[in-house]
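User: Predict the structure for this protein chain, please.
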Amino acid sequence: MSDSTSADEKYGWVPSPNGRGTLDIIWSCILVLVTCTWTVLHINVPEPDEAFGSKMLRKLRWAVWTIFAPEDVMLAAALHWTSARISKREMNSAGISDWTIAHGFLADSGGFMLRTPDFPPFPVNSRGVLYLVTKNYIEVPTVTKAQIEDSSKSDRLGKTVALTQSIYLVCQVIGRAVQGLEVTCLEILTLAYLNCALPTYYFWLNKPLDREVPIYIDMEVPISTVLREAGDIAAHQYRDTPLDFVEQPGWAAWRRRQRFSHFFGLTKRPLRRVPNDYVCLPSFWVAVSTWFFTTTHSAIHLAAWNSDLPSQAEAYLWKASAICLLAILFSSGIVGVISLTPGFDYTITTLGIWEKRTTKPSAWHDWAIDGPGTLASILYFMAKTVLLVLSFTTLRWMPASAFKTVEWADFLPHCWKQ
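Assistant: Here is the predicted structure, written as structure tokens:
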């Protein structure tokens, strides 16, 4: 009878156990990491009729890049934002008052495709649109900001959920630190990614998300006429599109190295889409602000300095990698800011792929900064890989306090707990 009675017992509200498991830790961090490396991405408009697999592969490549270099993706977002703001200012100054930052983002992401009588269709960015409009070759595109936002696949509910999950992780880490509970390396790593993801969300807030189809602009004037009337500035062979003489000065300072210029489907000329890493030069304050977040991203890893890791070797590896990451990103940020000052004329590269070349080709100007920078890029990827691996391997053996949950009631005023 006692067994039957026990089986028939009913309960009201039953609190969760006062603890958490390893899977709880992994799952909560993975949700935020997906937000930081996939949901945050705003990829440019693909080529017309591009295969779904090709588009997904491109986004996957950028997601992998975000895992290894979230600060670079944040910088790209900041420079896209800078270009869109410049576009709005210049268009408004030209009397085009309806042009917004959203229009600038759309143009710079390949959202406008120019069709001419004598040339295959190619994307035209915001500087190209401004030039063609002011020269009366085309009319101002009639798309409105509301139409741009409506065509974007932005999921506000999804972003709200992601933001809520991220805020919860921040509160969880702070609460655990205040109450003296162990914070895992994975949670610290996730917090570091979040430090870059939040400003990236801000910079790309007005950029169309996952737009599939460009808006076609028909121009009756042949490209040959445009180039002839432009004069000597358009006499050189173009690199990407016939409007390079207008578009390239805006984002030619930082370019892929020549060996990477035809990678990942960029074999056709003129280009049929705008690559996601085509960016303009940052302003001084954008450079400083992104440097701050970059340095903070690397410094957060040092929060695990005194963590109780499974072995002494893993503790040394974590500390060495965190220090290496901080030193590299701090110093490269300083070089990046200094490179904006007048008189700086040295070749510098970012992670061995993007370069800003000197106008004084010599061994000194080519390698004085770029040589140490290339070595730093190798060390950077090694350190980042070690931190990623240790974040998961150290979960195999943790102190008991790592599985205790935060007593949120302890943060309430005493009178509220009576």
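DSSP finds 15 helices and six strands in the chain.
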